[in-house]
Amino acid sequence: MDFVSLAGIRAAAARIAGAVERTPFLRSRTLSRIAGCELWLKFENLQFTASFKERGALNKLLTLTEEERRRGVIAMSAGNHAQGVAYHAARLGVHATIVMPRGTPNTKVSSTRVHGAEVVLEGESLSEAGAHARELAQRHGYTFIHPYDDPAVVCGQGTVGLEMLEDMPELDAIVVPIGGGGLASGIAVAAKALRPQIHLYGVESRLWSAMHQRLHGLPVSAGGDTIAEGIAVRDVSELTLELCRRHLDEVLLVEEETIERAIVALIEIEKTVAEGAGAAGLAALLAHGPLFAGKRVAIPICGGNIDSRVLSAVLMRGLVRDGRLVRLHVAMQDVSGSLAKVATLIGEAGGNIVEVQHQRVFGTASVKTPEVEFVVETRDREHTRALIAHLAAHGARARLED
Questions:
Q1: What is the reported pLDDT for 202?
Q2: pLDDT-derived band at 2, boundaries 50, 70, 90
Q3: Which end of the chain is more exposed for a tag (fewer CB within 10 A), N or C?
Q4: pLDDT digits over 234-268, tens only?
């Protein structure tokens, strides 16, 4: 752990300078108002591979001997570390093999292959992929580049915190997503050295809260489907565990729905794409607002590699959650022109019809009174209530599906 220090992080910053982006660090006026604090965003999703992981991967690669470079490297990763290793290994002329769990999103698998790495899909979890990667490393003489259990990697990730404090020295708190803990550890070491009074918080999905459990002396129980697969880690390392124990005030837990809300907010307000893990910091502020009220708070948007299909579903679910996309069941007489009349009434009330389904068999009160299901886009819940009232005033009985 003594290798992870402010001096080590500064050395990493000098080593990787010019090969990774010094990403924007900007105050969000709208999100500051929503979160009740002065909120600063570190846009690590703007790295070339859309993740902070480049920093640690490159720092480790640049510390290898010529013999280690010649033999090649291997890593296990759910995606972002894979891309960081693959991209910079290719730049440096080093052969890279990446072992990824079989459930890794397609976008991360294809993006890793694009950078020239050999991708092996093995195991149902990151730990199983890691075991296979170590076996291959021993068999072929590859250097294993761990995504977080390596001082050189942690120092590389710590350059995020170094840049934050250089750009905004008066920060009161930093909230960092935790998977294996490499980013949180590195940022914490840098931040505490530069500003001892700063408060540092990790954040995990409640389904995958291994660091929180370890820090509180609880047995590790983690698993389940999560949109934040980038921080879905069961096995934190002793290195990152001890650094987090030394420097973090607490590890906060967030629900899946809150992470989805954070992804939507970042797209709609900041016009920036974040994956689940990348939005976890904002999710923590939305879930634990009073903890940060009135403070100067920073969060890294640490990754932007989200599957397009998943992103589409999250955005649509966000519209439903906010009452901007609703499903109305309208009972109407089975006479010519009824459907056109109701559609006209919805339009008059300012609703935008997205989908229509005419139901004559299921869920109808009478065969003479078919029910039509409308999926309608509205401004908000108040607008939806006004639309239903407008329908009722003109003889169309509508009910809102929960």
A1: 98
A2: low
A3: C
A4: 889 999 999 999 999 999 999 999 999 999 999 99
For residue range 158-173, list pLDDT tens digits in order: 999 999 999 999 999 9
Q: What does the radius of gyration of the chain's CA atoms come to, in whole angstroms?
A: 25
Length in residues, the chain: 402
Q: Give me 254's structure tokens.
A: 């967030």
Domain layout of the chain by residue ranges: 1-322, 323-400
Q: What is the pLDDT of residue 360?
A: 62
- Distance, CA of 175 to CA of 300 (rounded, Å): 8
Q: Please, what's the b/e burial string for 205-239 (b: 16 or more CB within 10 A of its CB; e: otherwise)? A: bbbbbbbbbbbeeeeeebeeebbbbbbbbbebbeb
Q: What is the mean pLDDT of residues 9-16?
A: 98
> Model-level pTM?
0.90
Question: CATH for 323-400?
Answer: 3.30.70.260
323-400 and 1-322 share a CATH fold:
no
Q: Which residues contact 95 (CB under 8 A, 6 or more apart)?
A: 72, 73, 89, 118
> Which pLDDT value is given to residue 272?
98
1-322 placed in CATH 3.40.50.1100: yes
What would the two tokens of residue 182 be?
A: 């490499």
